[in-house]
């Protein structure tokens, strides 16, 4: 068989599309897609490996940086035994210190106050004067009655109480109140700025009771009766 007459021209392009060419084109497309997917998978694996290695390096760095902290803690823990004993004694003292006693409000008895009102009424007609309508009387009449009431009240106070001034200085004198002064005995008024010491002028010397001499009461005494009603027969 003479094959010299059969020549192959590689520059020629197929003019017909048969099943063989379709299969060849599909295989090429599949191989190209597989190659692309392989490359993408390789790139993604490299990226993940890079991200997983970075935290390990950071952890190592943190551990290395934490070493000085461990050394500091070791130095702090190295405390002498004597110091620990002193601290324990202080803690025991604080724990054993009793709590401040609760404030107990003292209930005042009204009998003494009622008894004083009785004495003022009995010796000075004090309640009669206070409860009287002064608008119905002239100033001269009120002045005359007030003098009598004043003498009677003064007698009751002198007979049953002893008084003493709180301030030893005279009114109008300068005085300095140091820190810790008794606020129950001295009342500060005016422009109060800052903390003691305070320097001011005595306006009133104040009074304090040094002795009480109220009469004793018998059993069955009704202290609520200040002045019994009077019936003339």
Short description:
The chain has helices at 19-77, 81-96, 111-124, 126-131, 139-160, and strands spanning 161-165, 174-177, 198-201, 207-212. The model is unreliable at 53-64 and 69-76 (pLDDT under 50).
Question: Which tags fit this structure?
Answer:
3 domains, 233 residues, single chain, two-stranded antiparallel ribbon, 4 strands
Radius of gyration: 55 Å
Instruction: Tell me how many strands there are.
Output: 4
Low-pLDDT regions: 53-64, 69-76
Helix share, percent: 40-55%
Mean pLDDT metric: 78
The ordered H/E elements are: HHHHHEEEE
Identify the overall geometry: elongated
The number of domains: 3
Our estimate of the beta-strand percent is 5-15%
**Structure class:** mainly alpha
Please provide a written account of the structure.
This protein has three domains: 20-94; 109-160 and 215-228, no CATH class; 167-205, no CATH class. The strands form two sheets. A two-stranded antiparallel ribbon has the order 1-4. A two-stranded antiparallel sheet has the order 2-3. It has five helices and four strands. α3 (111-124) crosses α5 (139-160). Helices cover 50% and strands 8% of the residues. Mean pLDDT is 78; it is low at 53-64 and 69-76.
Record the SSE blueprint.
Layout: H1 19-77, H2 81-96, H3 111-124, H4 126-131, H5 139-160, E1 161-165, E2 174-177, E3 198-201, E4 207-212
Helix pairs in contact: 3-5
